[in-house]
Design brief:
5 helices, 0% strand, globular
Length: 112
């Protein structure tokens, strides 16, 4: 998904997050350093949320999925970059592939 389509979709509606508008320049320019909030810190916070959920019996499957994707980005050397660098990681990653071509995503599946 192009940066233009991403921001049009996420910032174009009434539920647009003002915080995302602050990250737009970083994502559009691919400039994630110096980090406002390092990606590794966000992964740590997601991990702590997942542990707390486990300890209280709450199911948080999307938190766990996000935590693992951020861990892959750290493994890829992006831990000290701003957490918004996750966009570029997902765009170029060999570990995470979109499977839905209906919404303009590149279909990486071999089972067409």
């Amino acid at each position: 998904m192009s940066r233009e389509v991403l921001f049009e979709a996420l910032l174009g509606g009434p539920a647009a997050a003002p915080f995302l508008a602050l990250k737009r320049e970083r994502i559009e320019n691919g400039n994630y350093e110096p980090a406002d909030f390092p990606l590794r810190w966000l992964q740590k916070d997601l991990h702590l949320a997942a542990v707390s959920a486990y300890e209280t019996g709450a199911a948080m499957p999307l938190t766990n999925a996000a935590k693992e994707i951020y861990r892959l980005a750290i493994r890829d050397g992006r831990g000290n970059e701003d957490f918004s660098a996750i966009y570029d990681y997902l765009l170029h990653s060999q570990d995470v592939h979109p499977i839905d071509d209906e919404h303009g995503l590149t279909n990486q599946s071999t089972n067409n």
